[in-house]
């Protein structure tokens, strides 16, 4: 399962990320860029890691973002394996929460 580091969790809760994420979401009219269903997650094409977490050209660059729905996000990160539980989901910070 996808786990964020403490540093990544701080980034995803930052004002800079929330502002960037919200602006990108609006620029895509709230639709998943892969399947045109309602989007949920602003996904980084180049994954965030310890080496680039402080590089705004990676983390806050609209060219590195993609709005995706939960199923498309799951396919990206979990190799096409769909969720087997329907009582949990990922929130906009990437944390697992109860539905």
From TrEMBL:
Keywords recorded for this protein, A-Z: Endonuclease, Hydrolase, Nuclease
GO cellular component terms, A-Z: cytosol
Pfam families: HNH
Keyword check for Transmembrane helix: no
GO molecular function list: endonuclease activity; hydrolase activity; nucleic acid binding; zinc ion binding
Coiled coil: none
Family: Belongs to the HNH nuclease family.
Protein name per the record: Putative HNH nuclease YajD
Organism: Domibacillus aminovorans
């Amino acid at each position: 399962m996808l786990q964020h580091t403490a540093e990544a969790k701080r980034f995803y809760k930052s004002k800079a990320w929330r502002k960037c994420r919200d602006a990108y979401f609006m620029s895509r009219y709230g639709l998943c860029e892969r399947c045109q269903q309602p989007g949920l997650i602003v996904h980084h094409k180049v994954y965030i890691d310890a080496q680039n977490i402080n590089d705004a050209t990676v983390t806050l660059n609209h060219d590195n973002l993609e709005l995706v729905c939960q199923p498309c996000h799951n396919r990206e990160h979990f190799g096409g394996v769909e969720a087997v539980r329907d009582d949990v989901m990922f929130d906009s910070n990437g944390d697992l929460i109860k539905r």
